[in-house]
Amino acid sequence: MTENQRPSASRRRLLVGVGTGLSLAAAGCMGDESASITPVSLDGERACDECGMIIEDHPGPVGQIHFEDDEPEGGRPGQFCSSTCTYTYRFDAEDAGRTPLATFLTDYSAVDYEVFEEGSDTMFSSHVESETFARTTELTVVARSEIVGAMGPELIPFSEEGDVESFVEEYGGEPMPAEDVERSTLEAL
Fold first, then answer.
1. Residues 81, 105 contacting (CB under 8 angstroms)
2. CA–CA separation, 47 and 85 (whole Å)
3. Which residues, in sequence order, are bridge partners of residue 123?
4. Whether residue 68 is found in the same domain as residue 106
5. Pairing mode, if any, of strands 78-80 and 63-67?
6. What is the pLDDT of residues 55-101, one digit of tens each?
7. How far apart, in whole angstroms, are the C-alpha atoms of residue 32 and residue 48?
8. What is the superkingdom listed in this entry's lineage (predicted)?
9. Domains of the chain: total
10. Do 130 and 106 have their domain in common?
11. Residue 76 structural domain
C-alpha cells in the first residue's frame, strides 16, 4: 500500500464506524418496539381468540401474540388456550397481512408443572401468569410427545436445553426451535 491509500482506507473505516454508531444510536432512541413488549396474565374468564374456550380452564401450554397494528383484539394481545391455537391464529393473521411483534408461550422451564392423567391422556398443568411466558425466539418446542393439551396433540415449550432433553427422554417427541414451527408442523401433530 502507498501512503495515499492508507488515509482513504482509514476514512472508509471511520465512516463505516460512524455510520454503524449512528444506526445503533438511532435504533436506541427510536427503540425496538417489540423489545419493550411484555406478556400479560391470561387469568379469569379470558376466552381463546382461536377456539373460544376459557383459557385457564384447560391443561397445557397457553400463548399470546402482540401485533404491530395496535392489537385489534380490543386493545390487548391475542390470547390462546394452547400452543396449537397460538400458531394457527398467528399463521392466519400473517396470511391476512398482519405483523406479529412478539409471540409468547408458556415456558415449562420456568414453572413447577404438574403431570396428570385424564382418561387415557397425559397432560401438563396450565400456567397463565405473565411471568410464566417466554418469547418463542427463546424457546424450543417438543412436537409429537405423549403429552396432550387443551386441543389434543400439543407443542410443549421449554427455554432450557436440559429440560427439553429430560422431557423427550420421559415423554418422547421431537424438539425444534419454536420459531421453526410451520403449518405443516401443526398438521403433522
1. no
2. 12
3. 116, 148
4. yes
5. antiparallel
6. 999 999 999 999 987 666 678 899 999 999 999 999 999 999 999 99
7. 28
8. Archaea
9. 2
10. yes
11. 35-187
